[in-house]
Amino acid sequence: MDLPVMPPVKPMLAKAVKRIPPGMQYEAKWDGFRAIVHRDGPDVVIGSRTGKPLTRYFPELVAALLPRLPERCVVDGEIVIEHDGRLDFDRLTERIHPADSRVRTLAERNPARFVAFDLLALGDVSLLDTPLSERRAELEAALRDVAPPVHLAPATTDPEVAARWFEQYEGAGLDGVIAKPLDLPYRPDARLMYKIKHERTADVVVAGYRFHKSGPVVGSLLLGLYDDSGALQHVGVCAAFTAKRREELVAELEQLRMDPADGHPWAAWTDESAHEGARLPGAPSRWSGKKDLSWVALRPERVCEVGYDHMEGDRFRHTAQFKRWRPDRSPESCGYAQLEEPVSYDLAEVFAS
To answer: GO molecular function, one example (predicted)?
Structure first.
């Protein structure tokens, strides 16, 4: 390749804010794999957020990008997979597989899409120092006639439209809005944009914890919710405690510790087959690698309130935030019914915006 912006490139990032700021360009926040695509004639490289290539995991996108992108360009965007009219992050993560045959089977079964939202280079010209408003105009011109599975991300400068997208698009699996200053140059790996995500709370059962990498202090609390059958399902973790609080939690939770874990709802977590019929902590995955997945079992008797943005199926999509203990709530009262369900919205309507 011989492009004015060469791989690897880490994408420009966003910092979280509470409200949609005025006077900016607004886009939906896609829930997929961030990807920067370099194309130079017949050669395509798809780079991940960390700069590592994703090219081999999405062969169908390589074939789709070649006839749909300009001959020589660098495009920032998101790889997503659609299922039943909404984004499906779980099907996306299945692609990160060492076996090429498995990757190609999944590519045929659940083909991915690429949503383009920024242009870093075109032809022999780098656009890194070009203001966003001009880059957007160049992107729209370059992708004027683009066809699925490559899409031009909808964008607006109207904050009322952005607010409507924030409410509606969650039903299609998107998770908020991105706001970008109109005069913003492209700065890799810098948090110069703004993200506005949904904020919700839930009361959950604390049924275990993992140690922090720094030593024998709490790293994260393991959270559960009861399903309709009365089974406690692992729904995620909450973390981000101060060092002092991590130490305090070990002592605070000691009286609930179960060692051995016989009788705990998740006692079978080391049995790989047990993960097929229930959500248990410690499920092996391609993401965990050799990471220590062991955890300390606690009697599921304490309830805490956590903040979360949205669900991915029956679990929290991201790490939850600890709010407070809820001694007034019984563990048995912490079920899925308390969770807010966004109104369904067809992903096709998002692409048509």
So the answer is: DNA ligase (ATP) activity
